[in-house]
Amino acid sequence: MLSRFLEAEHKDVIILGSHRHLQAKVDRCTMKRKLLAATVLVVAVFALALPAFATHPKIRASAECDGTVSWNSESWESDHVFQRTTPDDSVVITRVLPGDDLVVAIGEYNVGNNHMFSGEFLALNGETVTLRATATLGFYSNAELTTLVPADEFRETTVIVPAACEGPTTTAAPTTTAATTTTAEVSVTTALSSTTTEPEVVVSGIVVTPPSNPQVGGTASTLPFTGMTNASLAVTGAGMVALGVLLAALSRRRDDTSAPRTWS
User: Fold this and answer.
1) CA distance 56 to 155
2) Average pLDDT of the chain, as a whole number
3) Residues 148-195 pLDDT 10s
4) Does residue 217 sit in helix, strand or coil?
């Protein structure tokens, strides 16, 4: 009886051990299947979401001390041009504010603008400015530009407008006192020449009119070389002419008296 009982217990132990081993194998297979299913699901999610995460707009900004905020928005990097292209008016640049966002500009990425566009606006000195670029319709996923990846992705950037510009420092130039120069005006009075008319000289029917004699300051001018004035020269000339006429008359009269008379 004891031996039979021991044999039965031994069989039960063997059966129980086999059952547990089989259950462990089943559990391990189930776990592997779950892990495989989870891996496939994760890969599928990343495969579907990768284009959405890859295609995105980019934005950069800078601020000057005069309050000017300049920004530039560019498409994401890709080896395929169409994947960097968006439909017209589908990229919105907004300024993020506590209330409603303020639309700064609306544009697109294409070959014509080299897949970027930019602008600027004024803000207050010391103000913090946050800009957001959003691709509202996504990017094209094929070369025919017919299919879009509706990512609705956005990127942000923040700049702080610096304090107001400081004006240039002005240094006063040294004062130089120039020497005073007095210019005296010299008046030069020029006496106009007065014309003195010499009297006419009449010699044996010949009227000799001497030239007018210009005088400067009431004194007759002296001719060069002779040392005589115009009046003296005129009188001398008139006398010589009269003497010549007289000598000619005497010579003619002498000829008339010396000639033989003819009696008819």
Assistant:
1) 7
2) 74
3) 998 788 999 999 999 999 876 555 565 655 555 544 443 444 433 444
4) coil
Cα separation of 257 and 185, whole Å? 78
User: Which two structure tokens, joined as six digits, stand for 202?
Assistant: 């009449």
Burial 121-157 (b: 16+ CB within 10 A, else e): eebeeeeebebbbbbbbbbbbeeeeeebbebebbbeb
**Torsion sign, CA atoms 72, 73, 78, 84:** negative
Q: What is the mean pLDDT of residues 69-91?
A: 95
Helix ranges (H only) for the chain are 2-54, 230-258
Torsional sign, CA 76, 77, 82, 85: positive
Q: What is the pLDDT of residues 193-224, one digit of tens each?
A: 444 445 554 444 445 555 555 444 444 455 45
